[in-house]
Amino acid sequence: MAFSSTLVFTVKRREPELVVPKKPTPREIKKLSDIDDQEGFRFQVPLMFFFRDNPSMRGKDPVGVIREGLAKTLVYYYPFAGRIIEGGNRKLMVDCNGKGVLFVEADANIKIEQLRDNILPPCPFMEEFLHDVPGSGGIIGCPLLLIQVTRFICGGFALGIRLNHTMADGYGAMQFLNAITEFVKGASAPSIPPIWQREQYLNARSPPRITCTHNEFEQITHNKPSSDDIMDSDKLIRTAIFFSPKDIQALRNQVSSENFHRCQRFDLITACLWKCRTIALHPTDPDEMVRVSIIINARGKQGMPDIPTGYYGNAFIYPAAVSKAGVLCTSPLSYAVHLIQNAKAQMSDEYIKSVADLMVIKKRPKYTTNWNFIVSDLTRIGIDKVDFGWDNPVYGGCTFAAPVISFYNNFKNSNGEEGVVVPICLPPLAVEKFQYEVKKMTLNLNEHSKL
């Protein structure tokens, strides 16, 4: 049973089943790339979609429709039906054994309209709509996808997906989901044929050599208090911030007098969150080095590796902007924007190759977590426009936030404003301060005195 202060409902789940490819698929071992199998990607990413009833789909069961589309898609994306194994030097590979992906059918005695803003990150009913099947959450030897379809009594439904991040990034996941929607609508093959070729793209050179500075992987040991102590995952609160067009304009007004004519919405939101989060966490030493790591996709960018359309592996890096905490907290927003833009400018073919080489040389280390904040923009990959025949979801995106990771998602609020919602994890004592700082920063400058 799920409940909040005003909402009580029950979700009944059937026993999990394994959905296998509709037709026989190759039995082989496929290596992941040296970008794919780094320690920082060895986790599960949850995605949630909520769909309203569509009169044109009456009589069609979303569970059966999606299950059938999934089985057809796995014929082309058959590595997803396999299991991860680990070789020498912690190298990850996929045993394409066709065992299948986990699929859960469920029913909830509630209408989607009753959920209201509870569909938004951090979605208090996440466990109900994407149940963690016992024994399925590992990286090695476990199903690579967990999918739950939950019907609502109004005819709408929720689709929860949990993805092993070593297999695909946001673009790759969207390519896979779009293939399912195409099969659901009668296609005989995906419009974009999937491409594996991990051994050809984004692998380390021979011999490997680190040629760039990688602040995102810098492991610093000192006697100062660590943010890892503050960001204890068992004690964190998950909340979310919504940036409306007015909020974005208020941020833009604070840098408009500077030479930031190409300042993107992402830069403004990231600068705001980085600064406000640092103020709320309150490093005791103003000289503490804090950083924000910016996930940048390499697909289709000039001067980047020629990654073909259809490649669904991880094809991104996350260079870091670095600043002294005291300077970041007391400087204008334009200071943080400038650092973020400089970090993004590090993106190059050489930088990506250097990351892949670093993974091999240093045995696939994890990104630094000490005073780091990693952000990923999902607003441009179409995750909010996945259509299985029931039209676009009311909400589609990542409800997940880790202690140092946040994802940006599109959302239209109850006032009809289209903006960006960002889930974030913070210690209990920092939440109110963080929300206050964001509110102060997103108000017009002449209104600050009213707070």
Automatic annotation (TrEMBL):
Its ancestry begins with: Eukaryota, Viridiplantae, Streptophyta, Embryophyta, Tracheophyta
State the family it belongs to.
Belongs to the plant acyltransferase family.
* Pfam hit, one: Transferase
Transferase among keywords: yes
Name it. HXXXD-type acyl-transferase family protein
The record's section on InterPro entries has:
CAT-like_dom_sf, Plant_acyltransferase
Q: Which UniProt keywords apply?
A: Transferase
A GO MF term: transferase activity
